[in-house]
Amino acid sequence: MDHLGARGSGLGARSGGVLLYFLALVAFVLLATANSAGYRYGASDLAFYGPAVMRQLDPDLFPRDRPVLDAQAKLTFMDETVAAVARRTTTHLPSLFLGLYIATLVLLAAGVTAIGKTLYRHWWTVFALLAAFTIRHAITKSGTNSLEGYFHPRQLAFAFGLIAIATFLRGRPLLAALALVGAGSLHPTTTLWFAVWLGVAIFATARVRWPFVAAGAALGLAGWWAFAFGPLAGRLTLMDPEWLDALAGKDYLFPLRWPLAAWLANLAYVPIIVLAYRRRAASGLASRAEQGMVIGCLALVAVFFVALVLNATRVALAIQLQPARIFWMLDFTATVYLVWALAEGLNMRPAIVAGILAVLALMRGAYVMRVEFPNRPLFETAVPGDWGRVAGWVQSTPKDSGWLADPMHAVHYGTSLRMAAARDVFVEGTKDAAIGMYDRTIAFRTRDRLRELGDFSALSVEQIQALGHRYGLDYFISEQQYSLPLAFEAGAVRIYRIP
Predict the structure, then answer these.
(1) Non-local CB neighbours of 199 within 8 Å, separated by 6+ positions
(2) Which residue among 19, 112, 150, 152 is least crowded, i.e. fewest CB within 10 A of its CB?
């Protein structure tokens, strides 16, 4: 494949080049999805984001769970943004979320491609980076993954962030800042880390710096207002021991509790980035913008350690910002440099490296789909099986009805009742506990309700009725048989009325 800089040769300059990239894009989407164990509607974090969008479309939904949804939804414009898209396209949320998932992957591929085209000499190296990026993996102790098998605004914000970095590398810092505005409306914390990365990169490479000092001062004033009077008011308070105890299961929030292996895994990105950049610089391949990119990326590590001090003193904001996700950006940068080192730095044939990485991604994706999850389709656009039939019936009940289900039902059935049927749930053990980091009251609400339930499988009829009367619950879902009025059943899943 031609050198990227030779005679203006880009992928589109060759006959069939556009078609080749389109095929590569299709392969990227399919491989990324397979390595993420398939696309699933309503899975994991979408069990929170989805109901927040539903409530924007229908304010009568979730009258009981509004405080839980508001704890995070008020910090972002994601629900308003997606709801606005839904009103102008389709209110069929399964179709919309699938479209947003594919759009996210396309934008991720665009950002990866743009960065690769700027830093690499061969198109095959760009293809190698695309293949490497489809291999989903967890970012150690950060509570996030490099890819998700469902639409997540964090992933879309990351895509905008990559486009911002690519735009900066091409000498257009103002356009880069504009890309971050799009990211900010979707996921503020992911955008914050990209803003630090990009801000330091721009400042480090700017020939005239006073405008950036002035802009920084203006942002500082805006930050002071946000913390003093705006949406972040009260976030600089200290988490008390009782609040911290309610979050004890979320160890990724507290880096000082990490094992040594987690620290080594995350800090290993630093020498990879430094050594690869120094080699590129010594070879005359690194531009001034790339130098700024590396400085900005490494500045994130310094920010992490500052946040670590605040985390150790239990400042609420330092925990809520989840600074361990900074290592997601370092993970991507290290991958960019590792692919370069393999394909171009070691004088290997870039086409061979691209082929090897593509085969690895294909083999891993096939293993995930055929061995780990053999019954899961590549794209699951609705709630499947008995739980889907249950959700369909639940949607016929009044919008203000209250539901009692196993706190881990989202894990057992693939998505929560809130997401699948748009109804209030007494407690959802995994996601409600995570939302508790943003609001002390919600943390205690979740903890207390889980304690009241105790062993869900051992609940007696009397306990179920007592909970129903105390909290105004109307229905109970279980796979066990109870001497309660049966309202509906699908397979092993039964819905009882609480008299």
Answers:
(1) 212, 216, 296
(2) 19
Residue 364 and residue 399 in one domain: no
H-state helical runs in 123-268: 123-133, 153-169, 173-184, 188-205, 210-228, 241-246, 260-267
Q: Which residues, 6 or more positions from 67, have their beta carbon under 8 angstroms from its beta carbon?
A: 439, 441, 442, 445
Q: pLDDT at residue 223 above 80?
A: no
Residue 498, amino acid: I
Which helix H or strand E contains 112, and what residues bound it? helix 93-119
Domain of 476, in residue numbers: 385-497
Q: Which two tokens stand for residue 214?
A: 């002035």
Greater model confidence, 101 or 317: 101
Residues 408 and 327 reside in one and the same domain: no
Bridge partners of 494, per DSSP, are: 478, 489
- 282 and 261 in one domain? yes
Number of domains, the chain? 2
What is the per-residue pLDDT across 328-352, written as a single tens digit (0 to 9) for each?
999 999 999 999 999 998 878 999 9
267 within domain boundaries: yes
Exposed / middle / buried, residue 499 (Cβ in 10 Å: 0-12, 13-18, 19+)? exposed
pLDDT of residue 229: 55
Q: 71 in a domain, yes or no?
A: no
- Do 250 and 227 have their domain in common? yes
Q: Is 60 inside any structural domain?
A: no
DSSP code string of 158-184: HHHHHHHHHHHHTT-HHHHHHHHHHHH
Q: What are 182's two structure tokens?
A: 């799009």
Write out pLDDT tens, residues 235-286: 678 888 899 888 877 888 899 999 999 999 999 999 999 999 999 999 999 9
Token pair of 130 as six digits: 């695309």
Residue 79 φ/ψ, nearest 5 degrees: -65, -40
